[in-house]
User: Fold these one by one.
Assistant:
Number 1:
Amino acid sequence: GAGVSQTPSNKVTEKGKYVELRCDPISGHTALYWYRQSLGQGPEFLIYFQGTGAADDSGLPNDRFFAVRPEGSVSTLKIQRTERGDSAMYLCASSLNAVDTEAFFGQGTRLTVV
Amino acid sequence: GQQLNQSPQSMFIQEGEDVSMNCTSSSIFNTWLWYKQDPGEGPVLLIALYKAGELTSNGRLTAQFGITRKDSFLNISASIPSDVGIYFCAGRESGTYKYIFGTGTRLKVLA
């Protein structure tokens, strides 16, 4: 596609439920990032993929959060046993490779845990 | 998580005025990026900087990579109403992959 695509655009879930957020990067981009943005804050790093592997997952807040990118393209961010504090905008970005540093963001998924 | 210090936090300006904002870090960065974000949308990349001292323009926007490599500046000339939004800087340290974002500068333009 022309840009990074994230689905769904909005997700409302009940506390304790499991959610999956999907990211389709720009075609041909091997590097993929997940960020989380709370209201009034800048994006905070969660995890970085180069190809299929997570090269840096230091930003994942706890073991309820997990992300995969099995074929080196689409990525899924998975959150188990959601808590109200997980409510935020989840942003995905991609760049051509690890060397090319321009990262392009999708429109985000707004997650609300009630 | 870690965030870069951005200033000013917010500003109101008259249409046609020039705008300046900056971003500082306690770490040395090898890349600086500047983004604009509208409400409910993802950040849109404006300018990328790769070398200390580099000055890069994109239309009415000009950004500079500070010579200490710990700061960056963004200027907007002759502001227009559609410049309204939140501007974020993001930096990356050598040998790392993640970008660290600033706290944002909220810009409001009065027609």
Number 2:
Amino acid sequence: QVQLVQSEAEVKKPGASVKVSCQPSGYTFNNSAITWVRQAPGRGLEWMGWISSYNGNTQYARVLQGRVTMTTDTSTSTVYLELRSLRSDDTAVYFCASGGSCTSRSCFVDGLDIWGQGTLVTVSS
Amino acid sequence: DIQLTQSPSFLSASVGDRVSITCRARHGINTHLAWYQQKPGKPPKLLIHSASTLQSGVPSRFSGSGSGTEFTLTITALQPTDFATYYCQQVVNYPLTFGGGTTVEMK
């Protein structure tokens, strides 16, 4: 079965960092973009950015610049999302999703067709 | 940022109904729009990309139309499995924003 498998739920204190992983199962990323999307409880979807599986290039949402890093471990085909200086409003389910295609310059994502199951990150003192 | 406004936010319908959801973009985005369906506790599912191209495996009762600033997702003959929340997403200008969502509830 083609899917993305994410790491387990996390509970963090304000000011801490969290690192969420995402690994393909039943397929390979094959030069697609891996996008991170989050969803606060009872709210809509928020695009966070993508990382290219082709060469590790990234594109982040401006509102998260300086706090977010997306990386890839090519040896295990695992993608990571790190979010720093956590605040209570970072409490959300974090999804990874693949789709689109990447070149040496950038990625074009016309839709996100494979999703992870989501990782709940709770930020609370 | 390109703001996407979905209407209505909530919609009550019955099995067999024809349902339409609108997504309006503040600025023109050609046909760079995707539609997703999300059920509680699950990740979104891609229904349509490029405004009107049905994703593989998605039933043909779903269709998308529009270009520029106004787009429509139509479900003909609503099925019990279609009660869910639907989101549009523009995929041309960063950040790749989502609409606020439309929840289709059973009447």
